[in-house]
What we know:
Elements: E1 2-9, H1 14-23, E2 24-32, H2 35-40, H3 42-49, E3 54-58, H4 59-66, H5 71-79, E4 85-89, E5 95-98, E6 103-106, H6 120-132, H7 140-157, H8 171-182
Parallel strand pairs: 1-2, 2-3, 3-4
Antiparallel strand pairs: 4-5, 5-6
Helix pairs in contact: 1-3, 4-5, 6-7, 7-8
Amino acid sequence: LLKAKSLLLCNNDPNIQRRVLEQMDAEIIAMDTMNLWIRIEKETLDNVVSQVDILFINDVEAQLYSNFKNLDDAARKLLGMGPRYVIIKKGEHGSSLYTRNSVSHLPAFAVKRFVDPTGAGDSFAGATMGYLTKVEALNKDSLIVAMNYGAAVASITVEGFGTTSIMNITKQEIESRFQKLSGGPGRI
């Protein structure tokens, strides 16, 4: 088995995600999915979801997967499937972190020039997981900080077409946006 601090199973066929899981030994395992897999590979998807720490899913997918319209109800059902944390992505409306005992709603970074949403969810999940590779322990507080970094990166992604903006990203710009999302210096 390959060892890693974190593993993000990107939105892919759950059969492939399951095979990757079988080859990895990661401290923090997260996954993303989409409506296609919910519709055509639900049984395999259920198996993968039961093995992860964090499920990234957008609001429409959460409703479809759980069969609940209310996102709080949807998250509770998804948490019951195995993940310790469910992160529901809501685009320009931010994201919500659900645990068995709490819910935290986080804002999106307000962009001045919205161009293209393609890749924003992937940027959000990737940056969130990137931050988590540096934490001592996965918990609600570390996830909230990580999600604010994710929102900062996603906001840069939507300001260009495709990968245009993300290819020119700077740590300084990410930090500036993170500070605005998290309430300023000293919150890291």
